[in-house]
Amino acid sequence: ALVDEIERAGVLDRSLVIITSDHGENLGDHGHFRHIFSLYNETVRVPLIALLPDGARAGEVRAESVSLVDLFATLLAAAGLEGGVGTSSRDILATELGEGPIFAEYYYPLQALGLFNPEDARHQEAVAPYLRRLRSVQSDGWRLLWSSTGSFELYDVAHDPMEKIDRVDDPEASLQANRLREDLAKFVERGGGPQPLPNGADPSPGAFRDLDPETEQQLRELGYLPEE
Q: How far does Cα 56 stand from its chain's mean position?
């Protein structure tokens, strides 16, 4: 419907249309449902489709890993401008892209905790293992997951895309683990912050105030507001 509307406006041939998603969804993978409490590929690997002006490069498929933050530099470059977000944003439509580390974060799950009854001891026991902040880094076919509890997981996603075999204690994978730990440490040093948000902290006070009824209902259906 979006592309049809752009075409009806007569500007499709000179438009860059990018279709993607903010996250994936767990359907029982790794014991998880929805998109909370995890950074496995089920939640961070998303579609990315680009429709270039005049149908340029139609049918081309790229294998490199990229990040949603790269869309900023991509759109600016397409408009003939320069810039991006820090040093992590790059033009994904460039001919020579290369393979760089891709990062993802999951902050302390305050929002997700609103879905559970704080008075129900069973709920509290069930979510206790997931009261943590998460980070992941992927490069050259390997993914490292860090938890603020101090634990790590390592997956050879080139051969184990469903992340079934944790290789973090495998001596044969120590080189990849150490390399990704260094990449992650540099990312945190640039501004990721070493500590999880404390339990009870509110990172966005008043974010959902003064909503119209329709928007409030949509947010409630998506799980961003608790059920009444």
A: 28
